[in-house]
Amino acid sequence: MAVRIAIDAMGGDHAPATAVSGALEAASIVGNQVHILLVGQEDRIQAELGDADLASLPIDIVHAPEVIGMDEAPAAALKQKTQSSIHVGLGLHKAGKVDAFLSAGNTGAVMAASFFVLGRIPGVLRPTIFGYFPTTSSHCIVLDVGANVDCRPEHLVQFARMGAVYMERVANVDKPSIAIMNVGEEKGKGTEAIKATYPLLEDQSDLNFVGNIEGRDLLHHAADVVVCDGFVGNIMLKLGESMTTAVKEMIAEEMNAQQLSPEMQEVVAGVMQAVQKRFDYQEYGGVPLLGVNGNVLIGHGGSTSRAFRQMIVAASDMVSHDLPAAIGSAFQS
User: Fold this and answer.
1) How far apart are CA 214 and CA 194, in angstroms?
2) In the chain, which residue ranges form alpha helices assigned H by DSSP?
3) Would you call 144 helix, strand, or coil by DSSP?
4) 1-124+291-333 and 125-281 share one CATH topology?
5) pLDDT average, residue stretch 99-113
6) In this structure, how many other beta carbons lie within 10 angstroms of the beta carbon of residue 243?
7) CB 22 within 8 A of CB 305
8) Predicted TM-score (pTM) of this structure
9) Which residue, 76, 100, 214, 217, has most beta carbons within 10 Å?
């Protein structure tokens, strides 16, 4: 049976163009393994589809007349725009008409609407989002990266547990290692919240807690799951994103300064492009909102058609692993 995925076609900086083209790309790759519902203003979506023959594609349009803008206050927008593409898409998920919902739109609105429409998994205090970080051996995840700026120790412990479930279930990592991002490796370092989190994680016998790590350890894969509050995590995430452009510019300047031959510059540029790809969010598409009672993926506001395509693939994978049920089981034990 095909996985049914609802896409907020009106979400993102380039909506609905990139969402529609990403859906068409995904349909050409996964074929009948997924059924895609493009949720949004029908006339605009249809204009982007152009001459595409929907009769031969696993794609349908679900009309939603209202759009929540990227810069709108989430709370106000959710109350005033109850027929938005975000509301309608999540409503389809709640009703069991789709298996997943994904959006590159207003992150705050997607999160708030997900809490309201789908609810939290029993036992979860605060849902969370994570970021992928490339490492010298593979990649790790950092959570939270912006959903929860102020966190209590018990929140961080729950983030660690949800992150571990994701790594085990989706990334196939056996007994994933868990660490706290801190200003030092010693147990007594950090803010009061961080210092209180350490013994709580030590007491979780079913989690593979390895202690504190520092920022310099992250890309050397000091742990599979790294926990921090959303303030620290979001700064880390945005710094990582900047590396894809800043380092490239620095290398180009240095190659010109050293007057490398065009042939040598081409070799260096090829190496740089391969490394840069590891930091490119489009490789992952989006990240799941862990802790809500459903499959919700949140993408970058600047998502391209390629990013939407990857989000659709990731959503299908998430559904196949039944991540909400796995998290629910982890919080009941």
Assistant:
1) 13
2) 17-30, 42-49, 74-80, 85-94, 107-118, 153-169, 192-202, 230-257, 262-278, 305-321, 323-332
3) coil
4) yes
5) 93
6) 16
7) yes
8) 0.88
9) 100
Distance CA 179, CA 196 (A): 14
* Paired tokens of 112: 């708030």
In CATH terms, is domain 1-124+291-333 a member of 3.40.718.10?
yes
- Amino acid occupying residue 94: K
Q: Side chain identity at 260, as an amino acid letter? A: L
Place of tokens 């085990």: 168
- Report pLDDT digits (tens) over 144-199: 998 898 999 999 999 999 999 999 998 899 999 999 999 999 998 999 999 999 99
304-329 core/surface letters (b: 16 or more CB in 10 A; e: else): bbbbbbbbbbbbbebbebebbebbbe
Whether 322 has a pLDDT exceeding 70, the answer reads: yes
List, for residues 130-143, the tens digit of each pLDDT value.
Answer: 999 999 988 899 99
Q: For residue 215, what are its two tokens?
A: 């920022």
**Check whether domain 125-281 has CATH 3.40.220.10, yes or no:** no
**How do residues 239-298 score in pLDDT, each as one tens digit?**
888 877 888 888 888 888 988 898 888 888 888 878 777 776 667 678 899 999 999 999
Helix (H, G, I), strand (E, B) or coil at 178: strand
What's the CA angle centered on 287, arms 283 and 293, to 5 degrees?
A: 150
Domain boundaries, the chain: 1-124+291-333, 125-281
Position 159, amino acid: F
DSSP symbol at 300: -
